[in-house]
Amino acid sequence: MMSNRGKFAGSVAVVALLAGGAYLAQSRDADAVVPDGVLSVSLAQDAPAAAIPSNPDRDVFFGQTHNHTSWSMDAFTIGNTLTGPAEAYQFAMGMPIKHPGGYEVKLNKPLDFQGVTDHSEYLGMIRLANDPTSPVSKLPIADKLKASSPEQAMQVFKYLVSFIATNKPIPGLADPALTKSVWDEYVAISEKYNQPGKFTAFVSYEWTSAPGYQNMHRNIFFRDSKHLPQVPFTSMDSDKAEDLWAWMDGQRKSGTDLLAISHNGNLSNGLMFPVSTDGKGKPLTPAWAQERLNNEPLTEIHQLKGTSETTPELSPNDEFADYELMNFMIGLDNSYSNPHGSFVREAYQHGLAMQASRGYNPYKFGMVGAGDSHNTVTAYTQSNYFGGHAFLDGSPKARLAGTVEAGMDIVKLSTSGLAGVWAEQNTRESIFDAMRRKEVYGTSGVRIKVRMFGGWNYPATVFGQRDWVKVGYRNGVPMGGDLRPRKGGAPSFLVWALKDPDDGNLDRIQIVKGWTKDTKLYEKVYDVAWAGDRRPDPRTGKVPAIRSTVDIKNASYTNTEGAVELKKVWRDPDFDPSLHAFYYVRVLQIPTPRWSTYDAKALGVAPPKGVSPTVQERAWGSPIWYTPTTAQARLQKNGVRIAANVDPRPKAKAKPANRGLLTLATGS
């Protein structure tokens, strides 16, 4: 992705546009006009299935599953007023597009797929109320939604949030016919840009539930466009995930296949992954667990507002647990989100304990990376970062100003993640099916290729075979799969990673294992493949840190360290066949400068305090789960106790609550 850092005008370029009266927007989405200076693109209709390239061993496709345009009410009110879903697809396809700050940005190479996920709540309405050519601008309610300055825009935003927070419809905007007309246009744009075999444009949107400012958002993806709903299900219909799932079940009965991707568990204050009661305060049941499994096969592991894998509080022996963390509740300054019930690794652990003690595991989900940019365009690389929130972080000066907005410490915002999907074809159906079976992984924005298979009899020499991928499928399961028990021996895993050709070399491949035993949760991180001739510590097994080549002052690095490719057949040395376990792969790059270090260099100032000047970008694979047949006999039937939910109300910053009744043990 490329941006021109020399063309930033002032601290927030878009403010000048707003003050000049350009805040009123006339959308180009209805006709999907290609921006000036962009070569037109031939948008093909559905290609014959036989003509679409297909690989039975599957290829990796990189894409975006979380992106906002001017059609989202919050994006419009912070200054993204001129670009919509059409431009989002154009950007993903490699075309140069205008950032809300007025400068041009472009991907260095196109994505394979994109899901535009504008908020379903009042989809497109703020844009239309501010468009003098739209009938919506003539409605009486439109006067309360119009803004000609950033200050007025913020008042509009607060007005809208007051209705959404109480689940009350805004008078004059709840007309189903009006909602349907906007939804139909939204769907038509994705249809226009969908090119089977070349570029996949999903029909998708975001359900925006945030009870008490606690994030419970989900992005909804449809497998195809043949039987879409008349209008999307919104948080005004219900802010309970259980009601969303019930609606999704109804859609399937009518012939519409769809799935949900949860995001920002790290900001949910413990609500995203409950262990005792559901969103309605009822005890968790096997039926609840099955509903979650049916409807939410995936979660975001990384996005602009932080990483949701784990934290040093939850994983004190994981030396890489502190990657790009944020901890607040959206919309509340000086707020604190309890980590328990908010992070993915702990959810996987709790799922094992629930399986052992209760007979069900609601947390067998896969992982993807995504963005949540509200700019229409999305920044993936540290060296060409342009923020994700219009005038709030659209320039180096604005990003390094130390601003906290709606709870967000701007300098702690991250680059967008990416989803890597192993699918036979670049089509909606094939990519959706890969998501459904969880053969996917997330990255911090880099395009590392990662594969993992788990089985019982992989030979140590398998990577010497040309068809090792076929061996992986034939003798085991890929990431996202279930490894069935077998008498004798420990499972082995094929792990393989290939660096992003445009970014840093690889440092190491790790396997993260979690298991439960005797009322405790355990985890251990194994270094299984690494660059160079480093030797693991004989006591801990940890591989020493790779040498950093980063020059912080000049915001540069070299690829003189690290490896282009890493691979390994790894057998679990601590395997106990009687215990539930999960395994997932984590791949780390060598250290490179963080975006804030590049910004500091551009401004001629020292890198900001409070964030690391370097990062080790990475990828996280969806787990492989092992389920024994003898676990209930080995673990006392009621011996594993699950910690009760913490108080979900917003609270001042404090030390995390203790682990509760289910204690934690970590491997070294």
UniProtKB/TrEMBL annotation:
Pfam families: DUF3604
Signal peptide: 1-24
Keywords recorded for this protein, A-Z: Signal
Keyword Signal: yes
Listed name of the protein: DUF3604 domain-containing protein
Organism of provenance: Sphingomonas cremea
